[in-house]
Specification:
mainly beta, four-stranded antiparallel β-sheet, 11 strands, globular, about 130 residues
């Protein structure tokens, strides 16, 4: 079992930056494929970014390409999401997730993830 805790959310003006962190605890001797998703009330949880177990491969949804960067520090069991040039439409609760399957690819679908954090609110004002 793996526990995930997100942090770093908050209120920021449009054009600003935030860095989200996702700290993993529990069975962390194994590195897992990780991802970030976001959700607004009344809508489905949407894919934002994903990173492979080694960190060598990443994937982003089109709306954040060039603005967001996902990275990981396996020694610290932490995954990051650097968010620059934030827009009001980025406002959402952001969740990190981990996939227990030991493969080498990125995972972009929510259904494939096994463990989720509690989420952190990101609000971008115009």
């Amino acid at each position: 079992q793996v526990q995930l805790v997100e942090s770093g959310g908050g209120l920021v003006q449009a054009g600003g930056s935030l860095r989200l962190s996702c700290a993993a605890s529990g069975r962390t001797s194994i590195n897992y494929a990780m991802g970030w998703f976001r959700q607004v009330p009344g809508e489905e949880r949407d894919f934002v970014a994903a990173i492979s177990r080694s960190g060598s491969t990443t994937s982003y949804t089109d709306s954040v390409k060039g603005r967001f960067t996902i990275s990981r520090d396996n020694a610290k069991n932490t995954v990051y999401l650097q968010m620059n040039s934030l827009k009001p439409e980025d406002t959402a609760v952001y969740y990190c997730a981990a996939d227990r399957q030991l493969h080498l690819r990125v995972v972009v679908t929510a259904q494939e993830y096994d463990w989720w954090g509690q989420g952190t609110q990101v609000t971008v004002s115009s």
